[in-house]
Known about the structure:
- The protein has helices spanning 3-22, 25-30, 50-56, and strands at residues 32-40, 43-46, 60-64, 68-72, 75-86, 92-104, 107-118, 124-125.
- By secondary structure, it is of the alpha+beta class.
- Strands 1, 2, 3, 4, 5, 6, 7 and 8 form an eight-stranded mixed sheet that branches.
- A hairpin with a 2-residue loop joins strand 4 and strand 5.
- The model has no long low-confidence stretch (mean pLDDT 91).
Amino acid sequence: MSTDDLMEIQQLLARYAVHMTRGDIDGVIAVFTPDGSYSAFGDSYGLDEFPALVAAAPKGLFLTGTPAVELSGDSATGTQPLCFVDHATHDMRIGYYNDTYLRTAEGWRLQTRAMTFIRRSGTHDSGRPHAYQRPDA
Length: 137
C-alpha cells in the first residue's frame, strides 16, 4: 500500500466533502470518473443527474472521517464515515459511504459512492425511496 496513494484518495474525498458543503456541483462532479455514480434512496444516479440530485439535497456541513481503504493496483475500495449537519436546523444525519476508486490519468477518482444511513433505531439502510424523485422523462 502506497502512502502517496492513500493521501491522494484522502484528499479526493476531502474535496468531495468541501464541494458538497459549498454547493459546488462542478467540484463534486470533478472527483468522479466520467462513468461515476452515486447510490442512495434505493437507486443509483449517473453524473448527468448530479445537479438535480444535489439541488434537492439538504444544505449543510458534510463532516467526513478518515476512510478505510484497500488498494489493489489501479483500483481500490473504501468506507468513509459521514456526519451531515443541516445548516438551518443543525439536525444531523449519520452514516457511511461505500466507495470504489480508480486511478486515472488525472489521478485517483471516485467511481462509485453508495450512501448508507444509520437510523436512530440502529437500522442501516440506503435511504427512503421518496427522498428524491426523478423528473418525469
